[in-house]
Amino acid sequence: DDDHGDDDDDDDDHGRCEKDFQGAISEIDATLGTMVVRGIVVETDANTFFRGDHGETVSIDYFSVGNFVEVEGDPISEGMVLACKVKFEDGHEDECEAEFRGVVSNIDEASGTIVVGDVLLRIGSSTELLDHEKNPIALSFLAIGDVVEVKYCPRGGVPPLAERIKLEDGDDRHECEAEVEGRIEMIDLQLTALTVHGKYITATGATIRDEKNTPLEFSDLMEGDFVKVKGCLGPDSTIQAKQIILKDEDHEDCESKVRGTLTMIDLDTSTISVGIVQVQVNDQTKIEDDRTNQPLTLGDLQEGDVLKVKYCASGGIPIATKIEVKDSDDYDLDDDGEIEEHDILEMVHELSRRGVHIDLNGDNMTTSDDLILFSQRWKSRRN
Fold first, then answer.
1. Are strands 199-202 and 286-289 parallel, antiparallel or unpaired?
2. Which helix (H) or strand (E) is 12 found in, with range?
3. N or C end of the chain: smaller count of CB under 10 Å?
């Protein structure tokens, strides 16, 4: 076995493997000789080379959940490979510096989770929670509607563990970004104020309309109405509304999309994660295989599947309306049957806002690498 420890042998076994990918170990069973990396089941056998932190020969017992590894292997079935080599990688700290900004839409102190935009995040003992002056705060200090900057590790499992959440105020933001969506819980006509998702909102001077752009008066709103509020976050964490949109409750924002790899499936709770975006599946969710046009059930899905999910984003965990299993090289992002300029614009937009909703290379975020992959595919189709 010692003969396998030098670099020459390492290079030799590289050439006989068809598939090469990197990612964090999300599951491992040393007894069975299996692990899950980036949603792909990795089987090992007596011929698998295991390399440690310094390139030394090790066994599968060396590895644990969360380790970042490079896997070389041969596909044996859909979503499964037989590994030629599993190598520990330690030079990827920069990949744990992913960040995005968004509005807090749900907080669950009991479970230690928070939803920013539509991304569910875990809050752990190592998570830094900071106010806008970078002073430490408790989770209870945050409120729905707050604008925060999140740093996290995209390869740290799902839901991802937040490394840092920093509260932003008006001085930090280039524009008013406070936003909250939900049902009106309380309305005060005298004070021109309302409460949505527990967030107190003053609406003096706000523009109010319905989804058809029909102007409305504040007195047209009622408790129980579903509204989307945009405005500025005040120093007391209340929102000064600039715009209130009365939404048809049957028409909540159900056109949101995420495209990426299925990283988690829980049949007991009927939830899945695409990349780091977790969505709820219910009886109305349509599931199909886009490659065969065959209907599927939730139980038919497997980690590692490439999915496109449409969902309703109305605060909290999004609810999936449609789930499609896609070919890994299907880059038709706007569902018009063509790979064209509109798709690349959608990719550039997601990239510009440091998003997590379009992932082509399996790293659970939108990066320039995804844009390069898309551009190569686009050029090949045009040629």
1. unpaired
2. helix 7-14
3. C
pLDDT over threshold 90, residue 236: no
Side-chain half-sphere of 340: how many Cα atoms within 13 Å? Answer: 6
β-strands 68-77, 40-43 pairing: unpaired
Q: Are residues 318 and 380 in the same domain?
A: no
pLDDT over threshold 80, residue 249: no
Give the orientation angle of helix 368-382 with respect to helix 341-352, to 10 degrees.
170
Same domain, 142 and 211: no
Contact 159, 117 (CB under 8 A): no
Residue 185: strand pairing partners: none
> Which letter does DSSP use for residue 48 in this model?
-
Asked whether residue 333 is assigned to any structural domain, the reply reads: no
Residue 274, helix vs strand vs coil: strand
Q: Encode pLDDT of 67-76 as tens digits.
A: 778 899 998 8
Distance between CA atoms of 285 and 293, rounded to whole angstroms? 16
